[in-house]
Specification:
Number of strands: 4
Helix content: 55-70%
Oligomer: single chain
Largest sheet: 2 strands, antiparallel
Strand content: under 5%
Strand order of the largest sheet: 1-2
Shape: elongated
Structural class: mainly alpha
């Protein structure tokens, strides 16, 4: 047997288009299928006696026409030779359609006929290439929508109704559905709704199936909306209600008459459409045009489509009608008394819920395509949103949830056209329901909060609310209100944490995370230029040049927000004193310097928060300026096409109507003038408007004042208003409508002040529609954080508080993680937008949750920490923030440091956190350094687990889990304790605490400074005396960290140095006993200098000056650390000698080295450093010359150590003459002035050198003393290349040689031989030095005016030395040496012409004075040296080689050698 290879559904046909062509084989199959269907219909009909008999017509017996047509078709189908596509489908459909239309057929027959049509449709026998397909599909729709049948039992009726829905759905899904006309599609929807409504009395399954079918039909229709081409967008005159088109077809398309006749469930069809629109039980069996008279379709802009459009293939016209019809189903609100408090679940929520579901589907499928079709968009903007506002306050959570879903869809697709509607929805619905103070049930609150959270999860939602509403002076602060709502709703006040709190938290964090994500999308927005109003411009007229370009709209909205804030401040001033308020606004350039009526009127009109009593008094004032303001104020209203009572309500909502009749008259005159100007339809002049307005105020007082006992009737009201319209009566219907409007809804002449949330009234909705046509374009935000800084500044405080409270109350791990995510997002935003205060607040808040700052009341804080998941999460988060966003932490460093110190006290930080932090920055890959934090902790603590020894560390405590009897063996830790300990270690590992300090070089300067201050603060002020060991440990640890970050930030040492130096100075100066803190301070200071000197030459003096602190150490402290200090100074010198250039720096270094000269342990290291500086003169320089000499002198004089070191020190001093010679040679090339100065400096340095050697010449030790004398002689005689001035040479004798001789003489005479051994030899050496130097310099000295005095000084010393007594007797050796030296000297002086006899007047000539002194020493010398010329010549031979000028005196070496 053959079988039709046809798939049901459009998709199958599209996939196999070749099956649309009917081949000869399946042509026969189609014929067989239709034949079998005919047989089935006839078989069912024959069961009924009515169809089985024959009808008599005259003499002929004939079958019923339905049977005849079926049989005729049976004869034809096998005879058709043409292809099926060329055969008119009406030929084989009509017999079945006749059966469906017939009111004589029963349910089973109708059901079979419907099934046949359904099969033909789903097998796609019809397609667009079929001949006359348009007529065929129209015939099907006409027949099915006017189906009539006899009802035999309820079950059969349900089957027929279901078949009707199936066929209609198949029509819409068929490929030929595109040829259906607008009228037919409207008819299909109407019929489906009638069936759905009737299903309400049937079984649950049928109800659900019927609704599902209608749902699918609506989806089929609106799925085509995105495909509608541009030609169908420009449609004439828009649409009315579905009644306009369906009404013309009512008589043809009704299908319930026969059922009514049969009396089966008459009420099932009663008032089908009307029940959905006006909730009445009018006994109408057909859809009539009158049934929807009260529906939404009566909008004034709407007009019916013309017949031509309705008969065209379906498109926008039918969609408009259907959408309007769906909206009209929501009109039940009017008749059920729906209100924010009065509504209950008593009304049938079924129809509105079903309608909302259908509308939601239409919006989902149509999406943004609604924007292209003004009629559809207008329906959404006005009628649909109006109903959504009302149903939003429904007590039914189902309806509220569906309303919120629709609004969310509308936001996603159409928000650009729904700016004010969205504002109204959030202000009047979400914000009211989400707060219990407005009387909402918990279910309503939860549903509203869920909806709000859904909106918050839309990435741009809050940004757009802020930009479009909060920054618009005429709109409310929706973003701010929603953010506050979420924050407050997350707070569990005196109650446990509930799902509502968690829900609000989710919304809050969704907003925050949206901001955090935008940070990564490139620029953080345009430059935030401060807003300043330098001159007055009308703030209500400020416009943006381009609402789609961020370069334009971002500064624009910021400026608008600034104006809005200033206006709010102005309103506050105005409410206290109107005059001062206006003056304030003038001062901020929001009002002109000279007030004009328009600007004041606009201030009253557009500023929220004004005291409406004050505004009313101002507007009602008789002052001319106030009257002008009143008229300008009225001119700001748009009363176009408004009813008088609606306009009056809107007008009186903005201020309180004054109580005085004159003021009332002035106010109403201004109102009437404006109203007549815009809506003069019925009223002939403004006087009529004034009289009627007065009349409405009086009626309002009469109806709603409880003191009025006898109320005005409608007839009274109409009678009172006779002949007021220019001498004529107003239409009775018009007055009657006004009367009932006032009676039902009071005009509030004392409006509430702007504190709570507004309630959406019909008059406000009308006003909103007017405003929506004039409002500024909607600003669509993108994914860049243009306004996030401003938004976050508003919500950061409440957000941190809310998340903190939830975190505090929460126990669930998921909730805790959500809070942590929120904290991290807040930190990221704060850092990226440079909101340091916010980040500090966050850190403070988080540190509280670490439990590390709490006074430890638990016995085992480490184990308690390991068991507290919340504390561990908070700790990891704090340090994550510190590591990631440390740049922007300020005062928060103190709290973070408190946590670190607590961990340190608990033994949870490795001992080398601070030193690693410093060393890693400088030392590459040293063994044992730079290990991961985890290793040092784990190895330190796990090793001690279970050991019996006492320890103050973490595992030491851990192992001390002892029983009360200490003699019993210690218990081992339990598994739970081990696990807690392990969790603690893992937590500390995740914190990466060491990174804060090792990476501190990347911190911004201000943050780094605050971190250093926190460390100084954490260390505390050092106390004299002994503090507690714990405080000492903390101070040392903080100092380590401070030094670490100082070393890590050598490039920014200037920033830190002052604080670090002062802190170390405080420690040094306040410590009187050796302790860890002073040790760390001193050696830390030395390390800083060692590390930084090579890099910071400009700070070298500052750094080296700081080392003077070491010299201020208490003697006990200095003694304890002297050796280590010296070693550090030695290292510093060896590493940085080339970087020390100033005299001050060298003074500090040499002072430190000099101190060590008399310290047994330290002197060796100190001398080693000095040796490094002075050897070969490599590091000697004019600034450090005399400092090094002085230091070497102290080492030479020091009796600590061997004599050899003192002699070495003297050699260093003597060797430094080479430096002077070198500098002198270098100086010869210098410029004249500079050279002279340098030459003078070199002379002074030389003088200081020989003075230092003079002091060493007095040393008790003979070897040192004599070596110093020899060295002194070398220094005095080995400077031929150095230019020494006469003054210097003179000082050399006075300050060095003569002083030395005198001192040595005094020592020889005044001290015992025990103290100074062999002074005789020393005196002889000294005398040789004197004569040798004198003869060497004889020529230069002779030029001096004071030569005579100098020479007498030499003679007097020689005289004294001949008379000196050593061990009680004169020294013969010394006498002989002096005599020999004197002879030699006199001979040289004679030969050089210095000592000659001159004929000089007076008795003080050189000659006379010389012999006066010489005779005291050796009286025979004169005659011996000057007897005759021959004698003189004999001595000349002995003095050859002793030139007086420039040469070297070579007195007989044998003598000095033999006598020495």
């Amino acid at each position: 047997m053959g079988r039709l290879k046809l798939q049901s559904g459009i998709k199958a046909i599209e996939e196999e288009p070749e099956e649309c062509e009917v081949t000869p084989s399946n042509k026969a199959a189609l014929a067989c299928m239709i034949n079998s269907e005919i047989g089935a219909v006839l078989a069912i009909m024959r069961r009924n006696v009515r169809w089985g008999g024959r009808y008599m017509s005259g003499d002929d017996q004939l079958e019923h026409c339905l049977i005849q047509s079926l049989k005729a078709l049976r004869k034809q189908i096998f005879t058709w030779q043409n292809q099926w596509h060329n055969i008119n489908p009406v030929l084989y459909l009509q017999p079945f359609l006749d059966v469906i239309r017939s009111d004589e057929t029963g349910a089973p027959i109708t059901c079979i006929a419907l099934s046949t049509v359904y099969k033909i449709l789903i097998l796609d026998v019809l397609d667009l290439s079929t001949a006359h397909v348009e007529d065929a599909i129209h015939s099907v729709v006409d027949a099915v929508t006017s189906c009539r049948f006899e009802v035999t039992d309820p079950a059969a009726e349900e089957v027929v109704l279901m078949k009707i829905l199936q066929v209609l759905l198949a029509c819409m899904k068929s490929k030929v559905s595109v040829v259906l006309s607008n009228q037919h599609v409207c008819t299909i929807v109407n019929t489906c709704f009638r069936v759905v409504h009737q299903a309400g009395t049937k079984g649950e399954l049928f109800q659900r199936m019927a609704r599902q079918k209608m749902h699918e039909i609506i989806r089929c229709i609106f799925a085509h909306l995105p495909e509608v081409d541009n030609s169908e967008r420009g449609i004439v005159n828009g649409g009315s209600s579905i009644k306009a088109e369906i009404g013309s077809m009512d008589n043809d398309y009704s299908f319930a008459a026969k059922q009514l006749d049969n009396g089966n469930g008459n009420s099932d069809y009663d008032g089908l459409l009307s029940s959905s629109t006006v909730a009445s039980n009018a006994p109408n069996s057909q859809v009539s045009a009158n049934e929807n008279a009260n529906g939404v379709g009566d909008s004034k802009e709407a007009g019916p489509y013309d017949l031509h459009l309705m008969t065209e293939p379906y498109g926008i016209p039918c969609m408009v009608e259907i959408f309007h019809f769906l909206c009209s189903l929501l009109n039940v609100v009017e008749h059920m008394g729906m209100g924010p408090r009065s509504n209950t679940l008593a009304f049938d929520e079924d129809v509105p819920l079903f309608a909302l579901d259908l509308i939601n589907s239409a919006i989902q499928l149509g999406g943004a395509s609604f924007l292209w079709h003004p009629r559809l968009l207008n329906l959404i903007q006005d009628e649909l949103f109006g109903y959504l506002m009302q149903f939003g306050l429904s007590m039914s959570p189902l309806i509220l949830s569906m309303v919120c879903s629709i609004v969310l869809n509308l936001y996603n697709h159409l928000r650009a056209e729904l700016k004010l509607q969205l504002e109204a929805f959030f202000s009047c619905v979400i914000l009211r329901l989400a707060q219990s103070r407005y009387g909402a049930s918990y279910q309503q609150q939860e549903a509203a909060m869920e909806a709000l959270v859904d909106f918050c999860r839309q990435k741009t939602f809050m940004v757009e609310m802020y930009a479009n509403l909060d920054c618009d002076i005429t709109c409310s602060n929706v973003f701010e209100d929603l953010a506050n709502l979420l924050s407050k709703s997350a707070f569990p006040v005196n109650c446990p944490l509930s799902s509502m709190h968690i829900l609000a938290l989710d919304g809050l964090i969704a907003v925050i995370q949206g901001m955090a994500e935008r940070i990564g999308n490139g620029s953080l927005g345009l430059e935030r230029a401060p807003v300043n109003l330098e001159e007055y411009t009308p703030f209500w007229m400020v416009k943006c040049d381009n609402y789609s370009d961020p370069n334009h709209w971002v500064p624009f909205v910021r400026r608008r927000k600034y104006i809005k804030r200033r206006l709010m401040i102005g309103a506050d001033h105005f409410n206290r004193d109107p005059k001062k308020g206006l003056e304030f606004l003038q001062g901020t350039h929001l009002l002109p310097e000279k007030l004009d009526p328009q600007s004041v009127a606009c201030f009253f009109r557009y500023t929220a928060g004004l005291d409406k009593n004050l505004v009313g008094d101002f507007l009602g004032n008789h002052d001319e300026f106030c009257v002008q303001v009143l008229h300008e104020f009225a001119g700001t209203f748009d009363f176009q096409d408004m009813n008088l009572d609606t306009a009056l309500r809107l007008f009186l909502e903005t201020f309180r109507l004054p109580g005085e009749s004159q003021k009332i008259q002035r106010v109403l005159e201004a109102f009437s003038e404006r109203y007549y100007e815009q809506s003069p339809q019925i009223l002939v002049n403004k006087d009529a408007a004034l009289l009627l307005s007065y009349s409405l105020i009086m009626l309002n007082t009469d109806q709603h004042n409880v003191q009025v006992k006898k109320k005005m009737t409608e007839e009274d009201f109409i009678r009172n208003n006779r002949l007021i319209n220019g001498g004529n009566d107003l239409p009775r219907e018009f007055l009657s409508e006004l009367y009932h409007s006032i009676c039902k809804n009071e005009i509030r002449t004392t409006p509430e002040q702007g504190v709570g949330l507004p309630e959406m009234t019909p008059s406000r909705w009308i006003d909103l529609m007017h405003k929506s046509k004039k409002t500024a374009p909607y600003i669509a935000a993108d994914s860049i954080a243009y306004l996030d800084h401003d938004m976050f500044a508003i919500m950061s405080g409440p957000t941190i508080a809310a998340i903190s409270v939830v975190f505090d109350h929460a126990e669930n791990e998921d909730v805790l993680q959500t809070c942590i995510d929120g904290f991290l997002a807040v930190a990221k935003i704060s850092a990226c937008h440079h909101l340091e205060d916010v980040l500090d607040d966050l850190v403070v808040s988080l540190c509280k949750f670490t439990t590390l700052l709490n006074p430890s009341s638990v016995e085992e804080p480490v184990l308690a920490f390991g068991d507290d998941a919340k504390a561990r999460m908070a700790t990891v988060t704090v340090f994550s923030i510190a590591n990631r966003y440390g740049d922007y932490i300020r005062t928060g460093w103190r709290n973070i440091l408190d946590c670190i110190l607590r961990l340190h006290k608990l033994g949870l930080l490795p001992a080398r956190v601070a030193s690693d932090a410093a060393d890693d920055a400088e030392l590459p890959a040293e063994s044992g350094q730079g290990k991961p934090l985890t290793n040092s902790i784990s190895s330190a603590h796990l090793a001690s687990l279970g050991t019996p020894r006492r320890s103050s560390g973490l595992m030491g405590r851990f192992s001390q889990l002892l029983s009360l009897d200490t003699e019993e063996p210690r218990s081992q830790p339990t598994e739970q304790q081990l696990a807690a300990h392990q969790r603690t270690l893992q937590t500390i590992q995740k914190c990466h605490i060491d990174s804060i300090f090792t990476e501190s070089k990347f911190l911004q300067s201000e943050s780094l400074l605050q971190l250093s201050r926190a460390l100084i603060w954490g260390a505390g002020r050092p106390q004299k005396g002994t503090g507690s060991p714990e405080d000492e440990d903390t101070a040392v640890f903080c100092l380590e960290l401070l030094i670490a970050i100082t070393l890590n930030n050598r490039d920014r040492i200037v920033l830190l140095w002052q604080g670090v130096y002062e802190h170390i100075a405080n420690i040094v100066q306040s410590t009187v006993m050796p302790c860890a803190s002073v040790e760390k301070a001193v050696f830390g200071l030395l390390r800083i200098c060692q590390r930084l000197l090579p890099y910071k030459e400009n700070l070298a003096d500052e750094l080296l000056r700081s080392l003077q602190l070491v010299l201020k150490l208490d003697a006990r402290v200095a003694d304890a650390y002297c050796e280590q200090i010296t070693q550090e100074v030695s290292r510093l010198v060896k590493a940085n000698a080339t970087h020390i250039r100033s005299q001050m720096g060298w003074r500090t270094i040499t002072s430190l080295l000099s101190v060590t000269a008399r310290h047994p342990e330290a002197s060796e290291a100190g001398f080693d450093a000095l040796l490094f500086i002075m050897s070969d003169g490599t590091h000697m320089s004019p600034p450090n010359f005399f400092l090094c000499i002085d230091a070497a002198r102290q080492f030479a004089e020091s009796r600590v150590g061997q004599v050899e070191r003192s002699i070495h020190a003297i050699d260093l001093m003597a060797g430094s003459v080479a430096c002077l010679v070198q500098w002198a040679n270098n100086n010869k090339e210098a410029m004249q002035e500079a050279g002279a100065k340098m030459s003078q400096d070199i002379g002074e340095m030389w003088l200081r050198l020989v003075q230092a050697l003079r002091k060493v010449c007095l040393d008790q030790r003979e070897e040192v003393r004599n070596h110093a004398l020899s060295s002194l002689q070398k220094c005095l005689t080995g400077v031929d290349e150095v230019h020494l001035t006469q003054s210097i040479r003179l000082q050399c004798f006075d300050l060095v040689i003569f002083t030395m001789l005198d001192d040595l003489l005094e020592i020889a005479q005044g001290h015992s031989q025990k103290d100074y051994r062999n002074m005789e030899g020393t005196l002889m050496l000294a005398m040789k030095v004197l004569t040798k130097v004198f003869l060497l310099l004889l020529y230069e000295l002779f030029q001096l005016t004071t030569f005579c005095k100098l020479w007498l000084g030499v003679l007097s010393r020689m005289e004294k030395y001949t008379k000196v007594k050593i061990r009680g007797k004169r020294s013969e050796k010394l006498q002989e040496l002096v005599l020999e030296l004197l002879k030699n000297t006199l001979v040289v002086m004679k030969n050089r012409g210095v000592l000659v006899q001159r004929s000089a007047l007076g008795g003080d000539s050189l000659w006379e004075l010389t012999w006066l002194h010489v005779n005291n020493i050796a009286p025979a010398l004169q005659s011996e040296l000057f007897p005759s010329e021959g004698l003189e010549q004999s001595y000349l031979g002995n003095t050859e080689g002793i030139p007086i000028s420039g040469g070297t005196v070579s007195a007989p070496d044998e003598t000095m050698g033999s006598e020495g």
